[in-house]
Design a protein that fits this description.
binds zinc ion; mainly beta; 3-stranded antiparallel beta sheet
């Protein structure tokens, strides 16, 4: 599901609306897979609060050895919504609909590390022969 319609919910004071949706980001960013947004909307005296966890996996090439690095990502969102926006812009809302795809994408991008590594102690490639040193020494340094 891409959009969560909150028009009716905005008039349901005292209610809560749990959601748990898979999000397909393959068209936006194929590196993000297994994306899911889980959380709850609450309407307390007409004020809508939004809390959610966005989880997913990012597959990108390691900055050191160029092999695939698989990064589990998780973001927490907590904000107040109107039918047109969220207080901190973390959630994309338009015409009473939450855009789950854009919201999940924006949240996951913020969780990406500046340096992508397949493992913390990745040894990288030998600068002389290009061998992946995680697979063993190449002999250049001797
Ligand atoms: Zn690596
Ligand atoms: Zn070497």
């Amino acid at each position: 599901m891409r959009f969560l319609d909150i028009n009716d919910f905005s008039r349901s004071e005292g209610e809560s609306l749990p959601f748990d949706e898979p999000v397909d980001l393959s068209a936006t960013e194929p590196a993000f897979t297994e994306v899911r947004i889980t959380g709850k909307l609450r309407n307390v005296v007409g004020v809508m609060t939004f809390r959610a966890t966005v989880s997913g996996t990012c597959v990108a090439s390691c900055d050191r050895c160029l092999e695939d690095a698989v990064l589990p990502l998780e973001a927490e969102l907590k904000t107040v919504l109107t039918l047109e926006s969220s207080e901190d812009d973390s959630v994309t809302v338009e015409n009473g609909k939450i855009d789950l795809e854009k919201t999940a994408y924006d949240a996951l991008v913020l969780e990406l590390p500046t340096k992508i590594l397949c493992k913390e102690d990745c040894l990288g490639l030998c600068p002389s022969c290009g061998k992946n040193l995680n697979d063993g020494e190449c002999g250049c340094s001797e």
